Amino acid sequence: MLAFSAHAEDVRVAFVAHEKLPSVEQLVEKTTSLLNVGSELRLLNEPPAAGWQSYSAVVLVGPQALEAWSFNDSPAAVAVFVSRDAVAAYRQQLASALYLEPPLKRQVAMAKSILGHDRPLGVLVQDKSQWKNSGLSAMPLQQSLVTPYFVDQYDNLNRALLDLLKNSHALVGTYDTELYSSTNIKNILITAYRQNKPLIGPSSAYIKAGALATTYSDIDDVAHRLSEILLTGLKEQVWPDADYNPYFKVRYNQQVGRSLNLLLPDADALAAQLAKGEREH
């Protein structure tokens, strides 16, 4: 479906990672099969003898590859498995990028579909600048029923969290590894569930810890979108802007849903509904 119509044999893509992980090898295999072009997985410390310019493009897999990459005299570089914040520092040097985390707007839409569109939701953020970058700051708070709580305006995280939970039906998590660190997450979840308030997101990794639901993109979804980015860039020499992945799934913690007496909608149907809503807007 995505194969190059001509000169595909001349196209070679290097996938660059700091180590050969099964997930990286799967990404290479799936993306290459969709594009039907030559590819090679190379480690950062093993540059090709002919130089990186022997490739048509490079895919930087993960933050280590992005941070260690020298953009001098290299072909077009696309970053994947990297957060929006990680990409921001290198945006001018990257041809494109696919953010690791789901957009907060999508997580909010999922929360509303699960809990009801008339339920107030709270978002915990470090400060106003983080909220400004969230993609939700332009929404009128009264109309959207989504309210940010700024940690830097409170004595500590706990006070901000308690204020949020008092006024919200759920906490929608942001992809902030400092705020939702392994140290904080246990306290956040215990505090929320004592008040029968669920945590939505911030990523699939938190489902096992006790988050109720999240949207996420698996290897197939990343390969799907990455192949589209590479196809557009290499064929048309116009690279799509760095963005969130439009292909994603919904994942639940069914045990948490039962403990909160929630009837969770079908995950596949909800993902399709959310994706349709995004395409229409």
TrEMBL record:
<protein>
    <recommendedName>
        <fullName>ABC transporter substrate-binding protein</fullName>
    </recommendedName>
</protein>
<dbReference type="InterPro" id="IPR007487">
    <property type="entry name" value="ABC_transpt-TYRBP-like"/>
</dbReference>
